[in-house]
Amino acid sequence: MHDIRDESVERLIEEFLTARATRKPSPHTQDAYRRDLRSVAALAGAEHSPALPLDALMISALSPRVMRAAFARFAAPRAAASVHRAWSSWNGFFSFLVAEQVVAGNPMPAVGRPRTPLPQPKPLRGEDTPELLLASVSREDGRQRDPWPERDVAVLALALCAGLRLAELLALRVSSVSGRAGERRVAVAGKGGRPRVVPVEPELDEVVSAYLDSRRRRFGARSVRPDGVLLVDRRGDPLRRGGLQYLVDSCYRRAGITDRVPAGARLHALRHTFATRLAEDGAGAAEIMRLLGHASLASSQTYIEVTAGQQRAAVRSNRTNRVLVGLVSGQLGR
Asked: What are the residue boundaries of the Core-binding (CB) domain, all occurrences included (predicted)?
């Protein structure tokens, strides 16, 4: 067994994050890793007497006992999903340190990890809501300072008809949508560096083409070079995370459907609607997994299970069933 290289935890966290950057995580994901690692490390430092500030905490101080105590304090005010994510961050951090021969072993198996259920889908509520949203946003709104319905519809349609995540939308280039007529597809840089290809139906292709035509009229032919970003703001600059979230929120408000958007879902509600409709139309978990870029089949299976539950609830609400209750309770056969 090799000796521990006693180094600063703060410095090793940054070294780990630099190594992870080669996987091209989103800035949001990278920030979550840093936040989880630094938060628990600060609590681990507080377990010592006298307490060690983060910049003085050495890796040799992170024994299984200290890590258990730090995680117990970290978990107290937080949801199981947050604790589970932090545990995974630290497990990845220590696995990196073992591979780099900085530490002899990973203490995280000795630290309890809460079970967390798979997140449940949060599609838009209401059978006609996606169509209502698209129809409303496709019309120019005189209240907007600079209406651009072609761009707004393209954003919504790529999420509703291709199931793209926020970071995936921002990463699209003009050349990401390609292929011959009838065989068009969008190449997606997926979560965790997993690329995938999603078929583009003619209707979505027309929406994207209409958006690019409107962009040429606004900013000139050079604005739609193949290597340029696909989605831009009203100045022609690449859309950013906050700008895209605001755009989708404003579309919900303009369509008057804010009460049909599940809490905390925002743009993800469009992706969940895409997946839910796939399940309703008979797609299997493997197909949903490939189209949405899930890492595991279990995530895709939740859409099928939710859809099955909704179907059963719909059957249960059938008034004919109440007639059967009366027949079976004693009237049948008399």
From this structure: 7-98
